[in-house]
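BACKBONE STRUCTURE TOKENS:
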Amino acid sequence: MYIVDSTVVVPEGKEDELISIYQNRSRKVDEQPGFIKFELLQNDKKPQELTVHTIWETKQDYLNWARSEQFKQIHELEKNYPDQELAQIVPRVYKYKVVAN
């Protein structure tokens, strides 16, 4: 398995707005070969820190998604969020190979 976490820190008071965006996401990733799971995580001690957590069967499955036209379309939409503070946030991305479970 392969896990990709994308973490952002949103301006105070914008947490619910970003959560709502992800609750209403397009779900295009759900249809991708090798995709297993999506979760949006909110840090219990730092509620402004949100992490998109995805699980993939293989690293190649994730790379195929990240290079796809659908991925590009979704991330282009992010640049056009009505709230420009959210649109300009750059995530920290962490990638993990599962080595034991």
Notes: The chain has a mean pLDDT of 92. Residues 2-97 form a domain with the Alpha-Beta Plaits fold (CATH 3.30.70.100). The chain is about 30% helix and 30% strand.
